[in-house]
Amino acid sequence: MLNPNFDKILYRDSPFVPPVTIESAYRILASVTVSGDHPAVAIAEELIDLFTAHNQFLEDQKDWIMDNFPVDEDGLNRFYFGLIMPPGLILAADMIEFFSEEETLDALFPQTDNLTINGLRKYAARQIPLVGKLLHREATNPMLSVDPIYERCTFDIMLDCPWYLLGLEAGKRTFQEFAKLH
Asked: Model pTM?
């Protein structure tokens, strides 16, 4: 069982800590200044790409990770679920204003043979309307805009899965790093 003290797993250079890069910061800044995106939406969009790449890293290193951390393949899938769900919902709530629900879900959570991705899709479909209401677009501080969404994801699903909660925490910490730019 994972210790609830996340700092024991989310330490500097941990394989569970997604990288915060200057390139990502520049893409977020361009999205806000050039495209006029809300900072929270711009960060969420960048995090989707960053977390997807990070999940591939975890998949490539899963044998080493499972040998060195108290996690199995299901735990790694739940970690990814926690990592990607809030930014995915934020981006979905933004996209649904311009695209149908089906188009939005297909873009962010395409149907596959992967049960985790299909679970993400089903959960997202139920949550998009509520997240659209929770996303505080008037707040200029990105964390004030998204805190209700992270809170909702924390208390809504998989409460008994520490790896899901760890993924949420890792994602929120990464979001906070980029939010410091604004």
From this structure: 0.88
